[in-house]
Every structure is written in structure tokens, then in C-alpha cells.
Design brief:
By secondary structure, the chain is an alpha/beta fold. It folds into 2 domains: 17-58 and 96-206, Rossmann fold (3-Layer(aba) Sandwich); 62-93 and 215-403, Rossmann fold, CATH 3.40.50. The chain is built from 16 helices and 14 strands. The chain has helices at 6-9, 30-43, 47-61, 71-77, 97-109, 123-135, 145-150, 152-160, 175-189, 206-229, 244-250, 278-281, 319-326, 337-351, 357-373, 390-397; strands at residues 16-17, 20-21, 67-69, 81-86, 114-119, 138-144, 164-168, 193-195, 235-239, 259-267, 283-287, 290-294, 331-336, 377-382. The strands form 4 sheets. A 6-stranded mixed beta sheet has the order 3-4-14-9-10-13, sandwiched between helices. Strands 7-6-5-8 form a 4-stranded parallel beta sheet, with helices on both faces. Strand 9, helix 11 (244-250) and strand 10 form a beta-alpha-beta unit. The protein starts with 5 loop residues before the first helix and ends in a 10-residue tail after the last helix.
Length: 407
């Protein structure tokens, strides 16, 4: 497949990436989504909007974020060199602000005064609360009670920023249920509200919008790595839950001779309910207004999922990821909880960088792959910092005594 015109061809006019994507909506939301699509297609061609977004990224977000060589970690593994795209240094501590500031600008353009969202790990919630404070908008964040308990620092940050954090107590009390609750709010309040979906999922035009806003990550990383090294990396990798950080990292490399790998959470193992590896164990299905690959139970409903990383425990994946795997351009692998925690402590000890547990899955894959490759280079999107995870990790794993010696 030719990728030189990829961004012009996908998604198509129906919001489809091949057979994935689209918009499966209650009738009353169809006009609202059309309005969002039309507004986005208008402002994304506006020099005023683009210049304002560039100013925000530079002056408020602190972009560009750097590419960093993990010299000590690489040396401990062997001869293959690991590099990080440092999205943990983006303002608010993760990649999420890249699309939240864009969605905030869109809300202002459309005359909305309220933005709502779901959040799992809390990074999207913090980013949207940050955007709401910046633009002077009301903000409501839905978050599962399990994730609220695991991510207390981010809950506090959202509240300090002025957001209304609504606990969700139904079902597994995690990310899927938070999305359900946010959709219900949007159904009732779409006239004055925009639902700012937290990943490259949901009905069209959200997967397209989030991809476009997040592509700044891959564009920067590609230019920075080539300037640093004079060539491109052998492997580009990122963690995949819904898939926002990874799609933003991957798309600018699609037409290059590099291997691209998404890393899903295998959690405790292959048994249903013990992981959230949708691409690895799922099948085609519609959920939350879009068609993609999803994990299903025996009744064909969304299966229970689990991951140590709250931002990855979602039973589906962005439709563009499903398409890129189908056409053979992107591969998908897995990392377990244990591998992610090992990478969490190794990166902390050998490079002085405490990663988010979500990002630790990609670091774990890079460490494993570096041993196999022995030479070459791997570029990892370090999508977020691990401050939010410290209390949970310390409670469950102590201060990493068992990871003191390199394995």
C-alpha cells in the first residue's frame, strides 16, 4: 500500500479507515457530530487557528519536546540503542494536552461553554481541565472509582484546576464505564457541550481529529532523530490502549522504511479479564459509536478488561490502528504487568526518568527487542511521566528492591 497520500485518503468521507471507524450514533447526536466535523474541517484550514495552536504549543505547552538517548540503559542491554520521545516533558506531564488544547480551541470556535470527557489514568482529565482553565470553559470529567483510587494525584490536580470529577460506580468502575457515563451526559447536553474524547476512538470525526492533533509528536520526533543521527530509527514503538499517543507517533513514519510496533497490555495473562490486548485477542465489533477490533464476552458484549495501567484498560482500540494492522503496515505486540513494572524501575534507576505505567509497556517492549536486535536503534514514545503512579507502585511493589540488579 502507498502511504505518500495517506492523510488525504484516510479517513474517507464517511469517516472510515477501510472497514473500520464511521459513526454509529443515536439519531439526535447525528447533527451534533456533523457540526463538529464541519467546524473542524473549517478551522484546520484556517491560518488563524493554526498560528494560535502553534503559539499555544510553544509558549504554554513547552513544545517541541526533546528526543533523548538512553545511553546507560542501552549499554546495560547490549549494543542496540534506545531513544525516547519525551512527551513526559509536555505541560501537564503527558501527550494528552496536544489534542485537548486543539479541542478547546474548537469548542471556543463553536461557541460552546462546557467540555466533558472520560479519563482512566487521569492524564486526559488533567489535560482537559488544563485546557478548560486556559480557555475559560466549564469542565466535567467522568472517572471510574477503581481508577480514582489508583490515580489520586491526578484526581487532585483536576479538582485544583477547577474540574468537576464525577465518580462512576457501575460495572468494573474503570475506563469503559467512564466513557459510557460521559456519552450519557453528552446525549443530554450536546447543544452547549463538546465531548472531548480522550483517545483516537469514538465516532467520526474524533479519531481523525485526535490523530491530526497528536501527529505533532511523530513529526517532531522524525525531524529530531534525523537531525541527531543523520538517519531514521530501525523501530518506532509506543503503547496502545485507545491509541492516541501511538497514532500520533506512527503516522508521520508510515511512508518511511522503519518498523512500527504498537504495544498492548497483556496484564496478568491471556485469560479473559486478565488483560486489555484488544488487537491481539479481539474481533471486529461496534462500541462507543465506532467500528473497530474489540474484546468480547460469550454474548458478544464488551469483555471485562484489566491492566496495571489505568489508561490502557479499554476493551477496544482506535479504528485507524485496526486498519494499519490489516494492511500490514503496523505490527502489534504485548507486554505484561510484570514487564511494565520492571521497565518502570529500570528506566528510573538507569536514566533518572520515572515513566507512566502506560509508557512503561512500550519501554518494556523496547528493552526486550533491543536484546533480540543487538544492533540498531529503537525510538519509543514516552507518552507520560509516572508521578501519578508512584503511590500505587510503591504500595504494590515497594521501592523496586527486586529490580535493583539488571536482568
Amino acid at each position: 500500500m502507498e502511504f505518500s497520500k495517506y492523510l488525504k485518503e484516510y479517513p474517507d468521507k464517511d469517516g472510515k479507515f477501510g472497514s473500520y471507524g464511521g459513526a454509529y450514533l443515536p439519531e439526535q447526536l447525528v447533527p451534533a457530530m456533523k457540526d463538529i466535523e464541519q467546524a473542524y474541517l473549517t478551522i484546520c484550514h484556517s491560518s488563524q487557528f493554526i498560528n494560535e495552536l502553534r503559539r499555544i504549543r510553544k509558549e504554554f505547552q513547552g513544545r517541541p519536546t526533546p528526543v533523548y538517548h538512553c545511553e546507560r540503559l542501552s549499554r546495560m542491554i547490549g549494543n542496540c540503542q534506545i531513544y525516547l520521545k519525551r512527551e513526559d516533558l509536555n505541560h501537564s506531564g503527558a501527550h494528552k494536552l496536544n489534542h485537548c488544547m486543539g479541542e478547546g480551541l474548537l469548542a471556543k470556535f463553536m461557541g460552546k461553554h462546557r467540555i466533558i470527557a472520560e479519563t482512566g489514568a487521569g492524564q486526559h482529565g488533567v489535560a482537559l481541565a488544563t485546557a478548560a482553565a486556559f480557555f475559560g470553559l466549564e469542565c466535567t470529567i467522568y472517572m471510574g472509582e477503581v481508577d480514582i483510587a489508583k490515580q489520586a494525584p491526578n484526581v487532585a490536580r483536576m479538582k485544583v484546576l477547577g474540574a468537576n470529577v464525577v465518580p462512576v460506580s457501575r460495572g468494573l468502575k474503570t475506563l469503559k464505564e467512564a466513557v459510557d457515563a460521559a456519552f450519557e451526559d453528552y446525549l443530554e447536553n450536546y447543544e452547549d457541550t463538546i465531548y472531548c474524547i480522550g483517545s483516537a476512538v469514538g465516532p467520526h470525526p474524533f479519531p481523525m481529529m485526535v490523530r491530526d492533533f497528536q501527529s505533532v509528536v511523530g513529526v517532531e520526533a522524525r525531524e529530531q532523530f534525523q537531525e541527531m543521527m543523520g538517519f531514521l530509527p530501525d523501530v518506532v514503538t509506543a503503547c496502545v490502549g485507545g491509541g492516541s499517543n501511538s497514532i500520533g507517533m506512527f503516522v508521520p513514519f508510515l511512508n518511511d522504511p522503519v518498523e512500527i510496533v504498537g504495544v498492548e497490555p497483556l496484564g496478568r495473562g491471556e485469560k479473559m479479564g486478565d488483560h486489555a490486548a484488544s488487537m491481539t485477542y479481539g474481533s471486529k465489533g461496534v462500541m462507543h459509536g465506532f467500528d473497530s477490533i474489540m474484546l468480547k464476552d460469550e454474548n458478544g458484549e464488551p469483555a471485562p478488561v484489566y491492566s496495571i495501567a489505568s489508561g490502557l484498560d479499554y476493551p477496544s482500540v482506535g479504528p485507524e490502528h485496526a486498519f494499519l494492522r490489516e494492511v500490514g503496515r503496523v505490527k502489534y505486540d504485548v507486554a505484561t504487568d510484570e514487564e511494565a513494572v520492571d521497565a518502570f524501575f529500570k528506566l528510573s534507576r538507569y536514566e533518572g526518568i520515572i515513566p507512566a505505567l502506560e509508557s512503561s509497556h512500550a519501554v518494556a517492549y523496547a528493552m526486550r527487542r533491543a536484546k533480540e536486535m543487538n544492533t540498531g536503534s529503537i525510538l519509543v514514545n514516552l507518552s507520560g511521566r509516572g508521578d501519578k503512579d508512584l503511590d500505587y507502585v510503591i504500595e504494590k511493589y515497594g521501592f523496586g528492591e527486586k529490580y535493583k540488579d539488571f536482568k
